Amino acid sequence: MKKFFRITLIVIIVALAIYIYYHFFWVFAEGVKAGQMNYFEKKGFMFKTYEGKLIQAGYKGTAGTIQSNEFRFSVVEESVAQKLSTNSGKQFELHYKQYLGALPWRGASEYVVDSVISMQDMGGGNVPLK
Predict the structure, then answer these.
(1) What is the mean pLDDT of residues 67-82?
(2) Mean pLDDT, residues 47-69 taken together
(3) DSSP states of the chain as a string?
(4) Closest to 93 measured CA to CA, from 102, 109, 80
(5) Contact predicate 114/80, CB 8 Å
(6) Residue 61 pLDDT > 80, yes or no?
(7) Looking at the 3D structure of the chain, how many domains does it have?
(8) Is residue 18 one of the residues assigned to a domain?
(9) Rounded Cα distance, 106 and 16, in Å
(10) Host domain of residue 45
(11) What is the CA radius of gyration of the chain?
């Protein structure tokens, strides 16, 4: 009977570890989103994380309403956060990774931006990435 409980406990721990890895650390998708930076801020109670919102071209419609497409994201790397925070209102192309769940120290979103591909003034002129 003791052996049965030990094996059951090991199976439960392994299953839990696989679930946690799959849900919080495995990259579900990655890609590029483009749009105008609406806001970028550092916020949080215990864990201060960088959060932003990109307004994309086009509209999405839901049952009698029209809304702009928004891409809400988090940023972990300080260098990426500096580029975004000093250039609010510009046109960006951002590379992101999507996880199935958010972690408090990684940000409030399951989308984590890891690099800035390009940045332009709203007039269309390219801004050099530093």
Answers:
(1) 91
(2) 80
(3) -HHHHHHHHHHHHHHHHHHHIIIIIS--EEEEEEEEEEEEEEE-SSS-EEEEEEEEEEEEEETTEEEEEEEEEEE--HHHHHHHHTSTTSEEEEEEEE-SS--TTT-SSSEEEEEEEEEE-TTS-B----
(4) 80
(5) yes
(6) no
(7) 1
(8) no
(9) 20
(10) 28-120
(11) 19
CATH number (domain holding residue 73): 2.40.50
Residue with tokens 């009698």: 64
The structure's pTM equals: 0.79
Structural tokens at position 22? 């799959």
Which residue do the tokens 């992101």 mark?
Answer: 96
Rounded distance between C-alpha atoms, residue 12 and residue 71, angstroms: 37
Give the pair of three-digit tokens for residue 107: 């940000």
